[in-house]
Amino acid sequence: MKKTRTNISIILLSAASLMVLLILAMRFGSVTLTYGEIVDTLFGGGSDLARNIIMNVRLPRVLVAVMVGANLAVSGTLLQAVMQNPLADSGLTGVNAGASLVAIFIMMLFPGYTYLVPLAAFGGGIIACAMVYTLAWKNGIKPMRIILAGVAVNAILGSGTSLLSVLYSDRIQGVIAWMNGSLVGKSWGDIRVLATYSFFGLAASMFCIRYANALQLGDKMAANVGVNTNVYRVLLSLVAVFLAGISVAITGPIGFIGLAVPHISRLIVGSDHKYLLPLSVVVGSMLVLLGDTFARTIASPIELPVGLIMAIIGAPFFLYLLRKGAR
Amino acid sequence: MIKTKNLNVKYEKHEVIPDFSFEVVQGEILSILGPNGSGKSTILNAIAKFIAHQDGVIYLEGSDMAKMGVKAVAKRLSVLAQVNQSPEDFTVRDLIYYGRLPHKKWYEQKNEKDDCVIEWAIGQTNLSALADKRVVTLSGGERQRVWIALALAQEPKVLMLDEPTTYLDICHQIEVLELLKDLNKRLGLTIVMVLHDLAHAARYSDRVVVLQNGSMVADGRPEEVLTKELIREVYHVDAYIATDECLGGFCILPVKICKTQKEAAHA
Ligand SMILES: Nc1ncnc2c1ncn2[C@@H]1O[C@H](COP(=O)(O)OP(=O)(O)O)[C@@H](O)[C@H]1O
Ligand SMILES: [Mg+2]
């Protein structure tokens, strides 16, 4: 019972830190604003300049960071439960590779239709994932088969992407940012779409808690307590891939979050998904927000891709946590 | 309680159980014996629906299990695999809660009834002192009791266990077997288990079924079934059998490996 209370406090505290971080992140950029200006503007006041910067540039950006972070983290947490493998994340299911291939195809061959990229990338990701699961299905679905099918499908789709970038190497410039995950220039329209889908995806993930926990006990024990492992493996994967798909569609693939956040959160609150999933939401948001703030300020005026920053600052931090092995 | 009729199980094309029919009677302790690879786990797994069977029917309390949902089965039958894993940070009490899942609708949270049953299961398995310890820190014997407690939390009519005493020292082997016998007596729980130690099987079972190459070669009371001849035929071992009171009644002592008459004739 003490554990329950501690875990809930941790989750609430980190959610509060996320709020603070949000304000902090909006401060930095080509023009540094004061906290007063930021708060004023958010409540409808503020100078025209501050309004313009916050409402058109920084607020959309931090909101995208928070939602994408949450989605990728939850997706990774669910998939690690589904695969019973600590190395699983959404990349494994083919969703990134599928989305990338379709997005790059459009951006390079039909640049006039770039506005279709999010929708098409989402579709591409879902189709790739459907391929992986279809190939993996054999009298039911076993994690090892998903992983192997995922590796194969990723290789095929990845070579398609490479082929396109070689054939149209003159047009690669505009595509590189997308391929490394970028939060630049997201509109309120993007945010509305992302927010709607994220809401449903994250809400659905909260119904996965019990089944993700049961899968941790092994297939036989899960089946013994009446959990149909095939059905729930597919259902949990659907939720995970939906969340990852919508994120990739808007920002391009951002690595590391889906892999690392579940581990970081597990070190803090343990492996019960009742606490693990909510904390993953917060930690994922924080990490992408932090990463993106670094990405756009550290080498300013050049903006680095957030995916790159995630790897540079995230990986050593992750290793440190693993070595320390809190709890 | 449980009845199989012409059960047939294949892995790919490899037929492991050609045609297996048996019945588990309510309130008994039934041990399934047989050498490694004779299909004991396969039969348990097929009954538990962990693996599909190709042919035949399995009945649970008179209903065809193929037509029952996994949850309906899990409320009446608990099957413990030979090896089970617990997340590192789960306490005994955390883990036993999962035995309650078959009784819960997808939106239902843990309630007072669950807490009651969990405490009851902890009491039945003498785990009160360990209830807040992490499962991974317990000894093998204690862990086996935790899995049995999880099974009890399902409130099943039948409990099946695959080699519950393998990996345990002799003291903990007896402890687990005594616990099962006790649960069988007090709660009327029907128990089916796979054992390797014939002496244990003889002492703790009402009935034994002996398998060889996926087929049943004997079925009956241990004293009747476990003869020198059968042990030689099935296990290729010469055994010393005594009904000595100082040895605790019926007693089987493996002595040496032997060849069956058939093999001896070939040689
Ligand atoms: N998953 C599997 N795939 C293929 N063959 C298997 C599998 N599991 C068991 N077998 C085979 O089935 C036979 C019976 O195995 P099993 O039921 O585990 O025997 P026991 O539990 O009596 O030792 C063995 O020949 C074994 O090789
Ligand atoms: Mg076995």
What oligomerization state is this entry in?
A: heterodimer
Mean pLDDT figure of chain A: 90
Per the CATH scheme, the topology name of chain A is ABC transporter involved in vitamin B12 uptake, BtuC
**Parts with pLDDT < 50 across at least 5 consecutive residues of chain B:** none
Structural class of chain A: mainly alpha
Assign a percent range to the helix content of chain A. Answer: over 70%
Unreliable residue stretches of chain A: none
Which tags fit this structure?
heterodimer, A: 0% strand, globular, B: 267 residues, alpha/beta, six-stranded mixed β-sheet, four-stranded antiparallel β-sheet, 29% strand, binds adenosine-5'-diphosphate, binds magnesium ion
Task: Give the secondary structure arrangement, pairings included.
The complex is a heterodimer of chains A (327) and B (267).
Chain A: H1 2-27, H2 35-42, H3 48-83, H4 95-109, H5 117-136, H6 143-167, H7 173-179, H8 188-206, H9 209-216, H10 219-224, H11 229-251, H12 257-269, H13 273-297, H14 306-324
Helix pairs in contact in A: 1-13, 2-3, 3-8, 3-11, 3-12, 3-13, 4-5, 4-6, 4-11, 5-6, 5-11, 8-11, 12-13, 12-14, 13-14
Chain B: E1 2-11, E2 14-24, E3 29-33, H1 40-47, E4 55-60, E5 63-64, H2 70-76, E6 77-80, H3 92-97, H4 112-124, H5 140-153, E7 158-162, H6 170-187, E8 190-194, H7 198-204, E9 207-212, E10 215-220, H8 222-225, H9 228-235, E11 237-244, E12 249-257, H10 261-266
Parallel strand pairs in B: 3-8, 3-9, 6-7, 7-8
Antiparallel strand pairs in B: 1-2, 1-4, 4-5, 9-10, 11-12
Helix pairs in contact in B: 4-5, 5-6
The complex binds adenosine-5'-diphosphate and magnesium ion.
